[in-house]
Every structure is written in C-alpha cells, then in structure tokens.
Amino acid sequence: MKYQFLIFIDGLVKPFYMMMNALKWRGKMKKKEQHFIVLKFFGLGSITRIVHVMNTIGIEKKQVTFVTLYSNKAVIDLLDLNVIYVKTKHPFVLMISLFKLVLQIWKQKTTTILDMERVSNLSGLFRLIVGIGKHCSSFYFKPKNKNTRVQSFVSLQNKPATNAIAEMFNKTYACPSVKYNTKEGGNNKIFININAGNYLLQRRFTLSKYASLIKELHDKNPDWHFYLTGAKPEFTFVASFEERLINLGVTSKKISNIAGQHNLSEFVECLKETKLFITNDSGPLHLAYLFGIRTVGIWGPTSSKLVGYQENEQMLNLELDMSCSPCFIHPKSQIARYCQGDVTCFKSMNPKEMASKIIRFVESEKYKVLIE
Fold first, then answer.
1. Domains within the chain, CATH numbers bracketed
2. Which residues contact 142 (CB under 8 A, 6 or more apart)?
3. Is the bond preceding 326 in cis, omega lying within 30 degrees of 0?
C-alpha cells in the first residue's frame, strides 16, 4: 500500500478518531497488570526495535502480545513473539479479521493497550475501540508526556524512540553495555544493503555515492568480499548496482548479489558470519543491532539519534549534522522540503571520509561484538 495513500486514508479517519477520543469509557491502569497488547501494524524495523527495548528493560515476551499485519509474519516468527494477526487480503477478510480481533482483545480483562504506531488516526481509532474498559497508551508529538485516568500519552518530540518505547512500559531505557567473546572476527564478508523497503524510499543512500564508498573500501581492502543483499523483488535493482560497481573498477569476483536467496531467518544467520554490515536506515539495520552484528548505519532524512541507536563498539552512525536534519520526524513530515527534494544530507557526504571512518571502526576491535 502506497505511503501517500495511507496518509490520505488516515486523514479521512481523523473526525471519527476525534469523536471517539472525546468519550471517556476506557479503564484505569492497575499496577498489578503485567500483560500488554502492542499495536504495531507497519515496520519490520519498528517491531524489532520494540523487542530490543523489551530485552533491555526486562519485559518478557510472554507479557506482550503484538497486533500486526499478517505481512509481518516472518519477523514475528523469527523473534518468537505472541501475536494476533490482522489479515488484509481483501476488504471482506479485513472486516472479519478486525471483528474477531476486537472480540479477542475485549475478553482479556487485565490488559493495557500500547499503540506504538507513530501518531496515526487509523491505529488511534482502532486503539479506542479495542481499548474500551482498558487503559491505553499512545505516542504524540508534544513536548511532555501526559497522563490521565484513562489514557497515557508519551511524547516523541526530540526523544529517541527507544526511550519513548520504554516509557510506554513505564520503564526507563538505558543503552545496554556491549561485551566481547573470544572468537576473532577474521572473515572478509561484508554485507551491503542499498534498499529501504517500500516505506520512505528517500532513506536510500545516493547510489553513486554508495558505489564510490564501496570502491574506496575495495581499494583499501582488496580481500574483502561484498555481498549485496535484498528481498526477491529487489534483485533487479541490486543487479544494476552490482553492474555500477564493476564499471567503477570493483573486481567482479569480489561482489555477490544474494538478493532473494534467503528468507529472513536465513538472512540473520548469514549476518552472524559477517565481518560488517553496511546499510541504510531500514529493517535489516534493526535486526543486525538486535542480534549483535557490527553495523554501519547511513542516515539522511532520518536520524540515528531519534530512530536508531547510540554509537558503540557495535554501531557506527554516518550522518551529517545539517541545519535541516532530520527532515523526517513526524509520519506526515514533508521529506527534503528545505532542499527541494534534493536530499542534500546524502549528496553532501564524502565517500572517502566515510570509508576512512568505517575502516577505523573495523580495526578498532578484532573481536565480534555481542549485545547482552
């Protein structure tokens, strides 16, 4: 489903959401309640980040049930989460699925509803319906958190998403420490992700710059082998990038297009065998961080400070601190508005400087990093 179409539909739903929100029929949160229903319909990366926060703040998976689209089944299975699926094959199936879902949630008496969609009228309306008689929490873009008898609002304004997610669970997030095992990470496999899913394609680092970056890394480390990743529908796009690399002078034997060759679980297992993963802001970035893979994140319209992770021995963030950055803060933000769609934050990056930072990052630690 196209992003702009979702925004349009979301706007149509707003009057109904405002009307429902004015009614005071939700319940008060009880301290003894330890089961949560998390509404997160979109975003492999967002679901993964929630699980990372849960692990960090001590929320067990058995305490949480996710409500999400059936299209997220691969990541739900991978992370072994409790789930209630919303099926959207066609409108009739969707209506039946939603009706069953509402009844299923209503039967759970001691449950708190956590709406973790980023300020959506659609999910907000759904939250209000399933949350009748229950305490609800949701995100909003105002300076401070707000608590009422029946609802809690957690601010996302100028706050890392990891912190806000923890606050949803009434906890405080602290960046976890990293530890090392004694196994040397001596292989030469470098995984590259040039994709960013179908949501917010502006997160893709400029291809010409990306190719130049890999050429710099190849020239300084000729023994490195670059594996270009992606989903099956992205194979052709990745293949064209492979050709671009060869034209730049990267040895063809040192490039492998593995887009579409692995399911999500297999992809993660492959990541665990790499020296390094270089990626745009995307779902695979969050998976890599969750599973302790050394990762380089390339950030443009989005920000590592808001939707990513702090730098440490496992994570290197490459981004420019421009006056207009980040331009994607709110789901309805106008991307690259100040640069007239030019995405200057990407185009201003210097591949040579980026390559130098990556090499220093790799050489700074000879051991594979694992998250506690």
1. 3-168 (3.40.50.2000), 178-371 (3.40.50.2000)
2. 153, 155, 157
3. yes
How far apart CA 148 and CA 155 sit, in angstroms, is: 14
The CA distance from 172 to 163, in Å, is 7
Quote the CA–CA distance of 14 and 103 in Å, as a whole number.
24
The candidate with the shortest Cα–Cα distance to 203, out of 30, 333, 69, is 333
Question: Over the stretch 44-66, which tens digit does the pLDDT of each residue have?
Answer: 999 999 999 999 999 999 999 99
- 346's CB contacts (< 8 A; 6+ apart) are 205, 206, 209, 300
Q: What one-letter code names the amino acid at 95?
A: M
Q: Is 150 helix (H, G, I), strand (E, B) or coil?
A: coil
pTM strictly above 0.85:
yes
Which SS3 state, helix, strand or coil, does residue 238 take?
helix
For residue 103, the SS3 value is: helix
Amino acid at 246: I
